[in-house]
Predict the 3D structure of the following.
Amino acid sequence: MPAKSQKKNKRVLLKISGEALLGKCGFGIDASVNDSIARQIKEVHASGVETAVVIGGGNIFRGLSAASSGMDRATADYMGMLATMLNGLALQDALERCGAHTRVMTAIEMQALAEPYIRRRAVRHLEKGRVVIFVCGTGSPYFTTDTAAALRAIEIGADIILKATKVDGVYSKDPMKHSDAKKYNKLTYLEALNKKLKVMDATAISLCMDNNLPIVVFNMNKKGNISRAVKGDKIGTVIN
């Protein structure tokens, strides 16, 4: 029997890692993957759900990795933020080729490329039926795009964060490396923090906990899963 659906969400924030855009490429953006993600987002948006996206930049540059190799952490993080702009523009292009109206909003001003992030303007774009893509994280170093996703979701009044990953939920350990990894269907915020599960960073989970914002972690590589997550179907792992 199909999973029973819960109440449909009216406004969602989709968090996509930069690595998700790699596809079969070792670096950069796999055009076919980018187009597939755009089509899924367009399907959700066309159903009447106000849709915002926060995208990472790990397929191009990872600030934390560069910092661990000796680069100044703040400099590395700013470079990572710029990588998210590249991904945001690529996703915008793919969405508009699908027929969706979009806006890219950046936490670091780049007037020739995107609008500066202003909360009230972002909400207005959503109300007017535009997909809003948030880039450059929070605009400050030392914060991940997971934290940016939690912050933006709270600011725009999203009903839920959809955390798109390569696996079908949260596991006790990496299921790609450990056959005995246990999948969790439901978790509380405190369980996710105390078990140190690599779902989102602690700051992001704490923000969601303080504002009672649920998180759904699911496999985005399975066609239709973004739509199913939005509809409230029982897929992946729910953290609330």
Notes: The chain has one domain: 11-239.
